Structure formats: structure tokens, C-alpha cells
Amino acid sequence: MVSLKHIRSLVLLWYGLAALNPGVLVAAAPPSDAVAPADTLRLADALVAAREANPRLHAARYLAAAAQERTSRVGALPDPVLSFGLMNRPLDDFGTDEPMTMNTIELMQRFPWPGVLGNSEERAEHLAEATRLDALEAEHALMARVKSVYYRLAFIDRALVIMEETRGLLRDLHQVTSSMYSVGSALQQDVLQAEVAVAQMSEDITVMTQERLAAAARLNALMGREATVPVGATEFSGIGAELPTVDSLMSLAVEGRPALQAVQQRSLAADASYRAARRENYPDVAVRLAYNQRPQFTDMMTLMVGVSLPLWGGSRSVPLTSEADALRSMEEARALEAYNETFALLAELRAQAERARHLARLYTTSILPQARASVESSLSAYRVGRVDYMTVLANQMTVNRYEIETVRLAAEYHRAVAEIDALLGGAAGGTQ
Predict the structure, then answer these.
(1) CA nearest to 39, candidates 262, 309, 229, 290
(2) What's the pTM?
(3) CATH number where 252 lies
């Protein structure tokens, strides 16, 4: 395999330009992270920072905590009513010598019909669990987002290295062309085209550098940091093996994805709400206990049990039951939609990952070696005047494009795998 270093050495050897600055070039494959710089921002550290400091994730967790506290309140009985009174006092002297005169202390407690509170509490418990699962789903989605932006940064870092290498080679070719022009072996047009090629590559590097600033700001936001905090070097691992089948991934998602479990909890909550609505037409039971003190006579006690009369309950309970039934059907439809959407996303993401994996292998094992060989051949032909400079330039830019595309495909693979891992609810145990 012919690398850019070999091409540069060949150019220098042919034209004896020993005074040229050779620069430092690297191979097209992503550099190894075996020995990472001290200022490297590791992916694991970025994930930990996001879990601890992301404001949106904190909001989701607080919402889950609030929903959990709501369950005990929903299942509690209504507060009892304690009353004090002076009964049957004569208006003339407000005395206590009448037999019916008494001082009363009364306690009254209302009891909803059996099942009303239980179903309401069950509904609240299911909704609280769904909210907790939503927070967990938000965490998995955040982890996927952090990985996606991180690998975008990693791609930009390695693309900048490749572009710097290509610009260095283009500068060498420019000096070679200028030397050939000075002895009448090349056209002035070749010199001008070489200058334009260097300028265009510098422009591309400037654009990519600004994209890195934007990606770093986005990663800082996900980690709960200010956008201007410097982001150091990044890690970049190679492409892994073939992913499991879509059916296997879906089985893991059904077991582990919080969003699928959350819609099931909401469906159960809607069913409990429907059962509670059907009991709305049943009467409440009220128990009343009173102690009657008669200062000049024997004290008395009162015990009463009453029920509410749902004379107008039909106008409330029938629409309420119909509404609860419709909401129950809605949640069942949402559960099915979430299942189908998860299956479709897994199929799409797996296809993207496999596409990136196959293309990256094709570029590395076939296209890039052929493109580098084409550059070497065109340089030999340019030396003897059989091809023009634009042919050499076009061949070299083809190598540059496929080298960058190979790194981009690796980043795309990791992004797709990160999103798959989020859909599995971390069931894959982390695929990065």
C-alpha cells in the first residue's frame, strides 16, 4: 500500500528538492489512541459529566421524583371533619337547665365507595413508574446524543489531520511545478492551478475548524458546561463486527427499552382510571360520631351512617366512563405505535451501521490503495510530460476525499450503534 509519505518521498527524490520542508504526515487510517495526549477528553468521561450535570436530565429526574410523591396522596382518605357546637340553648338566658341543651363534639369521616381510592392510587403508581422510565429513557437518549456529537468531533479532528497532510503535499507539488516551470518543463497554468489548489485546501481547513468549534460547544452544552470551555483531543476506535439481526435487537429492546415499558405503564394507568370512573356513580359512605354533653343531665352519644344519593351521577359518570375508555384505547394504540417505531428505527440504524461498515472496508482494502497507486502513476507520467498537472491534482484529491470519507463512515457507524444502544435501553452493555 502506497501512503502519502511514500508519494512525497518519491516527488522529492525525482526532483532533488532536498530543501523542501517534508512535514509530518500520517497514514489514512484513523490514528491509534493507544497513547492518548494528556488533554484528551475521553468518551467515558464525557458520558459521566453529562449524567451528572445535564440540566434536562435533572429536570426529568425531578419530575419522576415528584410523580412518586403523588401516589400516596392520591390513595389517602379525605380528611375527617371535627365540629364543636352548642345545641338547643334558650334564647332568654342561654342557660343549661333545659333537657335538650347540650355541648357537642362531632367527628365525621367520608369513605369513598370501595375500589375508587384503590384504582386511583394504582393509576398514580403506574403513571409515576412511567415518569421514572421516561427519565431513564431521557438518560439513554442523552448518552446517544453525547456519543454522536463526540464522534462528530473525533471525525473532524482526524479529517483536519488528513487535510493538513494533503495541503502539505499540495505545497510540495506547487514547489515541484514551479521548479519545472523555471526550466521550461511545465506551463505557467500548472503553477497557478497549484496555488489555487493550496488556497482551496486552506479554505476547507478553515471551514472544518469552525465546525469543530460548533461541535465542541454542543458537546459542552450536553455536559452541562459553558460553551466556551476548551474540548481537548478525542478518542476514536475502529469499526466493530457485524451487528445482530433486527429481530434479535428488537427482542433486547422489548426487554430493556424504558420507553416501551413506559407506554405499557400508561396503558395500565388508563385501565385503572377506567375502573375508577365506573365507580363514580356509586355512593360515598359518611360516618358521623358525636359526643353530647348535657351539664345538668345524662350525657348522650350519637352515631350516624349516611350515603350520598347519586341522583345526578349519570350526567357525570357516563361521560367520565366514556372518556376513560377512549383514553385507555389511546394508550393501547400508543403502545403499539411505540413498538412499531422502535422496530423501524432499529432496522434503519442497523442498515446505516452495516452500510458504513461495508463501505469503510471497501475503501480501506480496495479503493484507497488503487487511488494511491493512481497518484503514483500520474506523478510518473507528469514527470515525462504525458499528463497535465490537473490529472495529478485530481488523483490526489480523490485520495484525500476517500481518506476523509473512510473516517466519516467510522464516525457514522459509531453514531448508529450509539442510537441502537439507546433503543435497547443499554441492554447491549455499551457498544462504543
Answers:
(1) 229
(2) 0.78
(3) 1.20.1600.10
